[in-house]
Automatic annotation (TrEMBL):
Keyword Nucleotide-binding: yes
Segments crossing the lipid bilayer: none
A Pfam family recorded for this sequence: PriA_3primeBD
GO MF annotation terms: 3'-5' DNA helicase activity; ATP binding; DNA binding
Keywords: ATP-binding, DNA-binding, Nucleotide-binding
Keyword field contains Nucleotide-binding: yes
Protein name in UniProt: Unannotated protein
Length: 665
């Protein structure tokens, strides 16, 4: 019997190895090597062994030399379907990265115990029984009909939405009660459309930024009685749980996948719908190479599979608004009657607007807190995030690292927010003063002050260190930081957004976009008949939010970017590395399209340059950048000592569409 040949992709970070290698399949492994399985192969004349995925099996190789043989099979489970490999290759080419880096995000590590348990006779029989019961049951259709009677607009945003198309949805605020459980309206809308897609025999992938969003969506799916076909993929799971969930996705049965960034790669059976919630949230930006945003990955997958694609949120990102204006995506927005009344306090008298909480907002919050929950959003966590000299008002910084000083309570000593050093003997370098003054109030100090102002009212604190997800419809004041606001049963009686000037004073191109997104996320938690207050937003942003011109704001932001030639109207590549390699990469792409370069600028041995280019030149320029990266990577490694292992030097790195290019930390 002639020896067959496996074409494998090595699991290696080296860019020069980002292509398929041919290996002979030994007779002893002929039945266990299958397309998509994990194997271990020799590398560099057999001196090293590396893991690899079998991408294809052919009868003969085009390689003229003698092929090395596969060393062993890690697992015969085909964890890499062909469609996922094709997607990884597309994403890598778009991002000037490696397909193995994409697969590292998409495919969880193997856990032997979880794999054995998943394929045990008992587990297989249980899954078969659940699917058979689901096929016979009419509970999903009945529950969906019952919920739709209570909320008849659940599927309105998805009307006239054919396969293979994209839609931008601004969802209505609030929550809906289902079987005595309050579910955010957006989560119930997602769940309803996923349930309908499931009834068509198709799978749905839901990508959300935060764990609390996952919990909300799972609550909505459970309310519609489709929990048995839901697969959760997120970093809170154990490795075994995540791997078992991935194995379930590989089965040829439709599922509903709910997860964070990497869930977008899930190789589901018959993908019919991609739902991306709040794509403008910075948490969705992938921090690992090749740095592809789930929004861009979903666009590729929708094109490949013909599935519907939805970008939904309380706001619209400029990237999605660009798709709308290109007629690539249709648009649907909730009616303005669904939103609460918002009073920007910049429109009040000067006397009122000077206070951190203007008197009108204070009086209304006090009144409403007697009958139900009131939300107060503050910009920062902690007690006093910044302090200054009481004498000359110079900002107090750490003597060791020049980081900002902060205090954790009214009685604690100031400490550095960067290095943690306690500044017990601080002295002002300008006036030699030793007394400090609190410059700002964080969530803890605000909660403390409101507790004194409302002595008979329960104060609830929710921030990064103290997270609360739900509050009942009883009198209380909730102090929360952006993203940590609890959901209130029946909505908040009032919402007061503080520290608007703190949001707007930050540097970066997306400052206004992030500020509006943060404020609207809090205001959307109010009852439709509530009166809310927005403090420090400025006249222009305040008027925009008061009139709920959400899509118009995105249009204005995009128009500004277009006039300046900035993302997302043009693509960018941030190049970092040795100066000679950065310059060589820029020279390679100089004649390939209409480009603009900022830099390179150097800090020590490292240089940085930002390349701007048009979307139409994307394939050509990313291919050229990838070639430059490979050339730079072949220039060798160095050793720390004579006996140490080689230390890999990243001589050139390219980060496409880098959001940090626009925003300061």
């Amino acid at each position: 019997m002639p020896t067959r040949v496996a074409q494998v992709l090595l699991d290696s970070p080296l860019p020069q190895l980002d292509h398929l290698f041919d290996y002979a399949i030994p007779t002893s492994l002929a039945t266990s090597v299958v397309i998509g399985c994990r194997v271990r192969v020799p590398l560099r004349m057999g001196n090293r062994r590396v893991d690899a995925f079998v991408v294809n099996i052919v009868d003969e190789s085009s390689f003229g030399g003698t092929l090395q043989e596969i060393d062993s099979v890690i697992s015969s489970v085909a964890v890499l379907p062909h469609g996922l490999y094709s997607l990884a290759r597309q994403v890598a080419d778009r991002q000037a990265g490696s397909a193995s880096d994409v697969l590292r995000l998409a495919i969880p590590p193997r856990f032997v115990r979880a794999e054995k348990a998943f394929f045990s006779d008992e587990a297989v029989a249980r899954r078969h029984s659940i699917r058979a019961e689901s096929a016979r049951s009419t509970a999903v259709a009945e529950t969906l009909s019952r919920v739709s009677e209570k909320r008849d607009d659940l599927r309105t945003p998805f009307a006239s939405f054919p396969d293979g198309t994209c839609r931008s949805i601004v969802v209505p605020p609030g929550s809906t009660e289902v079987d005595e459980k309050h579910v955010p309206t957006w989560a119930l809308m997602f769940a309803a459309e996923a349930a309908v897609t499931l009834q068509r025999g198709e799978s749905t992938i839901c990508v959300v930024p935060a764990f609390r969003d996952i919990d909300d969506l799972l609550l909505g799916l459970a309310a519609l009685e489709v929990g048995d076909v839901v697969v959760r993929l997120d970093s809170r799971q154990t490795g075994g749980e995540r791997y078992a969930g991935y194995l379930r996705i590989l089965e040829e049965h439709p599922v509903i996948v709910v997860g964070n960034r990497s869930a977008v790669y899930a190789p589901v059976h018959r993908p019919g719908l991609f739902l991306i919630w709040d794509d403008g949230d910075p948490v969705l930006q992938e921090p690992m190479a090749p740095y592809a945003h789930p929004r861009d990955v979903a666009l590729l997958e929708s094109k490949n599979s013909g599935a519907r694609l939805v970008f939904a949120g309380f706001t619209v990102s400029v990237e999605v608004q660009r798709l709308v204006e290109l007629k690539f995506a249709s648009a649907w927005s909730a009616p303005r009657s669904a939103y609460p009344k918002v009073v920007p306090t910049d429109s009040l008298t000067n006397e009122q607007s000077r206070a951190r909480i203007p008197s009108a907002a204070w009086a209304h919050a006090r009144e409403q807190s007697l009958i139900g929950p009131v939300l107060v959003q503050v910009a920062r966590a902690g007690y006093a995030p910044s302090v200054c000299c009481a004498g000359c008002r110079t900002r107090a910084v750490c003597a060791a690292c020049s980081g900002p000083l902060a205090t954790g309570s009214s009685s604690s000593l100031p400490s550095c927010r960067w290095c943690g050093l306690i500044a017990g003997q601080w002295r002002c370098p300008e006036c030699d003063g030793t007394k400090l003054r609190l410059m700002s109030s964080g969530s803890e100090r605000t909660a403390e002050e409101l507790g004194r102002a409302f002595p008979n009212t329960r104060i609830v604190l929710s921030d990064g260190a103290h997270t609360v997800t739900r509050v009942t419809d009883t009198p209380c004041v909730v102090v929360a930081t952006p993203g940590a606001e609890p959901l209130a049963e029946n909505g908040y009686r009032s919402v007061v957004v503080l520290d608007g000037e703190s949001h707007r004073s930050r540097a970066g191109l997306r400052v206004d976009e992030h500020a509006v997104r943060s404020w609207i996320a809090a205001l959307a938690l109010a009852r439709a008949d509530a009166t809310c207050f927005l403090v420090g937003a400025g006249h222009e942003l305040g008027a925009t939010i008061a009139s709920w011109r959400i899509r118009e704001f995105a249009q204005a932001q995009l128009a500004q970017r277009r006039a300046l030639g900035l993302p997302p109207t043009r693509r960018t590549a941030t190049l970092t590395g040795f100066h000679a390699d950065v310059v060589a990469a820029l020279e390679r792409v100089a004649s390939l399209g209409q480009t603009r370069v900022m830099g390179p600028s150097s800090t020590g041995v490292q240089s940085r340059a930002i390349l701007f280019f048009d979307y139409r030149d994307g394939d050509t320029i990313t291919a050229a950048l990838r070639a430059s990266i490979v050339v730079a990577a072949t220039k060798g490694t160095r050793r720390r000592t004579a006996t140490s292992q080689p230390e890999r030097i990243v001589r050139l790195r390219a980060r496409l569409d880098d959001t940090e290019l626009e925003d300061s930390p």
